[in-house]
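User: Round two. Same drill as before: sequence, then structure, for each protein.

Assistant: Same drill it is. First protein:
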Amino acid sequence: MDISFTLAGLASQLLVGVSRAMILFIVSSGLSFILGVLRVPNVAHGSLYMIGAFAAHTIAVAFEGSAAGFWLAMLCAPLVVAVISLAAERLLFCHLYEREHLMLLLFTFALMLILGDLTKMTWGADYRSIVAPPMLQGSVSVLGTAFPRYNLFLLMVGPLVAVGLWLLSTKTKFGKIARAAAVDREMVGAIGINVSWVFAFAFVLGCLLAGLGGALVSPTISITLGMDHSIIIEAFLIVTIGGLGNIWGAMAGSLIFGITQSVGVLILPQFAIVFPYLAVVIILTLKPTGLLKSVW
């Protein structure tokens, strides 16, 4: 076998893995933000990711034939998820923050089942897909192999989200208040800050990222019921190995997940799905607290 072809194929496969890691990061960073601020293990996070994908398809179809349809879908679908999450937070979650984690886990699991059924009632069980705009279609040459333009787009979006979320968390007044509320919400409330709305904004922001991830992934996979199951498992594992509330830890965990699966496709395609979970086992065995320190 030609060595240059092998190296080119490996480089292309790694880029595919990194581009998928960007989707995983966007979803898991939202989950990490919610866990860090609210201490809520939101199992329904994957359902909001799925709703984001279905909403993006609906918006794109509504503006089919328009060059702006895709971009409107990418913008509006996360906002739809944000509205749903705000309603859920104000009506339900805000009354449960003081409950035990097990009760919160069971509650969000029940919410996941409800959202799954509502999604089926709204959109049905048919498979759907979104076509990327002309400027993101086709491929470019990377080391002699074709690499999809849309994946390059994802490689740009992921770091932008990471930097934006990091700046929000560390350089803004809201970020400082949220970090303080995560440590001692009673003290923050005692100085006159409405902690309830701080939590609401944090929850909505985390869920909006889930919707954004669902919208962005829609041109690359089939949009279908059940797509929430695998993403929520991966997101929780990424948050665990990265470090609770650590944005860059979520990025590192996502890269590990994406790259190990891509390498697994080259080495043992039939067992490629095992490689990321094997990496998780090794990391947690060597460093049970995660790759990076929790910041909350």
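Second protein:
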Amino acid sequence: MNVLLIGSGGREHALAWRLGNSPSVAKLTCPNGNPGIAQVAETPRVALHSHEDWVSYARQNAIDLVVVGPEAPLDGGIADAFRAAAIPIFGPVKAGARIESSKAWAKELMASAGIPTARARTFTDPAEAKEFARQLGLPVVIKADGLAAGKGVTVALTRQEAGRAIDENLVESRFGDSSAKVLVEEFMEGEEASVFGLCDGVDVYTLPAAQDHKRVRDNDEGPNTGGMGAYAPAPVYTNGIADIVRREVLQPLVDEFRRRGIDYRGVIFAGLMLTQHGPKVIEFNCRFGDPETQVLMPLIEGDLALLLLACAEGRLKSLPESIANHADSTIRTRPLSATTVVLASAGYPGDYTKGLPITGLDAANADKNAVIFHAGTTRDNNQVLTAGGRVLAVTAWDTTLPKSQARAYELVRRISFDGCHYRSDIAAKALNK
């Protein structure tokens, strides 16, 4: 089949790499993709601004399946446009994408479906928000209601920090329209886990859980980022917890979508807190996570394109057993562990310099049990340059988590650019238990 991939970052490189290894894919196209994506897909430089442009491009290129990476196009309704054109697309319609684009709506949805989550209220008035934060005690979580590129959440340890986060949103509009409302939420204790559920509108099948590392520095210190690394499968996410999540989180969410007339076909990304009272939802996203996608794609055993097409066409249960285990609604994966380490620009998650030469990529790419996913890069003649805050995601896999971690860091040390920084403790939490 001919597959069209929308997006140009590290998550999309991971999807392109895995789709390119799918036997069913004859041609993979990712317009305006980064230099890493260009290694595994055609990346024509074309101006595609509107949904009509994308649909026209897909028709001209006989596209059989569209896969959407980022959340913004989904929130904008691109899946609605492709569905209207009868072109299969993996990604939810705009009504379903609200699960990520409005945290307040997501909370209301969870309440209606009886999904366990933290107590929270939504505010537009700073004084009322600060008073509720005081009532909840410390720590307290402040979230911008809308999309904020993974940077709209503050875990406030003091009343001053909470007040500042509320003012940044409601008074200073730090994230524009996304800051028009804030959620003030109770802090949950436990370990986090990221779970991808692949949904066809009725059923939902899961991948192994990953653990992301959001803080910029070791020991979970410093500001939140879009993600500095991940590992999978997460040992803390047991089969028993997985059963609870499917039964009490993912399937109730899909059923609630159906009750509301929303035909959700795509990823349900559940960010979970594994508390002493059981798993609770931190947030939902409507797309594959980053860097969780980079760490999970090497583990998938079957044909990813056929899997995503089955979701888009509403027929997960028709997949062969080589791709999906229908007995427990899981996607088949290899018995391996993987580790991803993100290499970031100096200053990230704040301001950073672009256009710095990257060395060592060829040496790192020589490992057949690893791949260097490009997130923020560009090419000038034969030189790859930095072009973003998160530049590369070094992913390695092996038979055990310690081996995959060691392999990933061995490759990290081969790559360099001015100001490069990364966390040295990805997966350490699991290994130190």
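The two ends are 45 Å apart (CA to CA).

User: Perfect.
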